[in-house]
Fold this protein.
Amino acid sequence: MREEKRSIRQQQIEAAAYEVLEAKGYGGTSMLGIAKQARASNETLYNWFGDKQGLFQALVARNAAEVKSHLEAELETDHDAMSILDTLGPKLLDLLTGDRAVALNRAAAADSSGELGATLSKAGREAVFPLLERVLLRARNEGQLNFDETGEAVGLYLDLLIGDLQIRRVIGRQPRPSRKFCKERSARAVRYFRQLLG
Amino acid sequence: MREEKRSIRQQQIEAAAYEVLEAKGYGGTSMLGIAKQARASNETLYNWFGDKQGLFQALVARNAAEVKSHLEAELETDHDAMSILDTLGPKLLDLLTGDRAVALNRAAAADSSGELGATLSKAGREAVFPLLERVLLRARNEGQLNFDETGEAVGLYLDLLIGDLQIRRVIGRQPRPSRKFCKERSARAVRYFRQLLG
DNA sequence: CAGCATCCGTAACTTACATTACGGATATGT
DNA sequence: ACATATCCGTAATGTAAGTTACGGATGCTG
């Protein structure tokens, strides 16, 4: 099988895995279920991903790479820092509370080995954090914000932007926020953030 | 069996359930495992709790009742509102990020029926919310805070107090916060909160 | 084109677990 | 004290799932 063709096939399998995961949760997702959804065989899944954990690790890693590249694209612009935050905030909130992210967080919560959680966090929050640090440092250099500890400032921004939305999504008590909600909450977060650190 | 004796026995079984749940996660927790830890029989568990879901519902409900009574005790004092918040905040944060709460949130995340999440939220956040509303209304009456929407104010307070600590606890990337940390974060939350709404 | 690798669909194997059942021991109520 | 209910420890039952295996179809490479 061609490398390119295999890559496409792999993504189809991963997409099928998400469909089963989002419909049935981690506990209700079996390798055979994914294989059937993807019209693939168990043997192929095990050959390509190693085992169930390996397949989920691949899902987490790919999802995180996509989130990161989305956000990095914003950072390459010449816009001023607060404008970047205005664009980045709703996108980040949307991604973190989207159905895929929620499904992956649920998988991590159910994974008693802690490995999915580690991958999710390293590739997620821990990857986004330095990006946000760069934005906030830019804002400070532009004289828009005033803080000593960049990490503290990023943490505060995330508290105001995301708060406890994720856990409420994960336990099933918060519907997916609308685009409108994400914009409004981001604007609110920026407003409060500037009030506190401006 | 005496009502009183049965109640004690039931709590012993629930304590054993927590031990298994915290050690092995929801997916790794079997009824037989709990029965063995509690030195009870499967038959007794099924007679008393109905099924696995029923047992976990009981865990959630009892934990929430305890959290609530903890917090209500603070509310019965004659202290001024901000003092109450100074006491309530660290306690609430400690309870919400404690090992039991985390284990229950994980169970809810793994429960594809959504029932545990519903119980957890109704008996948790949704029970705590009105308590906090009362505190903040008292603070407004005392002239300490200024806001229009009580619910919005409570949400902001929770964002500042808890933020994304819970989800990070649940996916295993945040150790349990120390008492000292809870006090400091609560104090920080109150400070920012007053800065924004004072 | 032929030989080999790999994929699909399906089955097999092993293990685990939710739930029910059972014999004997213990507790309860009269 | 006796009869009955209930609990414990263990086994049985039925189902599901992780993983491997297999025959035939398809794809790839020389």
Observations:
- Residues 1-2, 30-33, 42-43, 46, 51-52 of chain A lie near DNA strand D (CB under 10 Å from a C1').
